Amino acid sequence: MTREWTDLELLHELQPVVEKLINRHFSMAKDWNPHDYIPWSEGKNYYALGGQDWHPEQSKLSEVARTAMVQNLLTEDNLPSYHREIAMNFTMDAPWGTWVNRWTAEENRHGIALRDYLVVTRNCDPIELETLRMETVNRGFSPGQNHQVQDDLFAESLFDSVIYVSFQELATRISHRNTGQACNDPIADQLLARISHDENLHMIFYRDISAVGFDIAPEQAMRSLHRVLANFQMPGFVVPEFRRKAVIIAVGGVYDPIIHRDDVVMPVLKKWGILERDFTGEAARYQEEIAKIVAELDDTCEKFELAKQRRLEREAKMAEKRAAKKVLEPSAS
To answer: Where does Fe cation 1 bind (predicted)?
Structure first.
């Protein structure tokens, strides 16, 4: 009979691995300062200090870039919830607690830098941004929220946590990187590339802990992997109007189902060897179910491509009609 590990046993068993990975992280991480990536010379006072309040015409970013950057910022703003989640699941005992605090300190820089950039460059409405921040943080976040609809008995485990963030950190890295490229601004591109580097190192940490989990407790790890993939949502889904913003971001090529499959899900599964390994028992059954999820992702990508093409064609026709109408309108005397 396959042994069922408790989370406390897993925490103890994985402790040497965590310590090794933390030391590797310290050797690879590069310190940086958010203020170095902000064009402070573009800043000016807002109305409260005798200046001018924000106006839409002041924003230089495209709708796609602005929507993506604000969504990324609001996701980063929910850091208190993420800290609470990993502190509860990993405990604050060394070396797990060392990682919890280090990860939180590094993540906190991301929200600071993104907010400073957006407010200084006037690329978003700062009042609306603060309203959204308050609402998002009040809603909080827990990976378990992703499962409640399909699994009322869901009880988050250590493997659920580390496997979820293995995918989520990689997805966040790619979202930040593609947002930077969409901004058409070298400063924003440098800033988001810097943030993406942090996210990549975080992903590697969680991914490599999870890899050991598949070796020592394959059935439990595969059960968690199936649960995570079957219900996966980015933490930003709690942001108000998430679906509308996700469509803008997807159609704009920043993050869409194809990117999710090709650049997030499949590389991680390949790194772990999930579809190739010779599992037995319950792990083998979950392997088959995960293969089905991958096939469903293929279908989702095909449907997205068709829907995106139709949307772009509609937008092009509407743009043509507006241009034609403008030509026909009599010029003002």
So the answer is: 76, 107, 110, 199
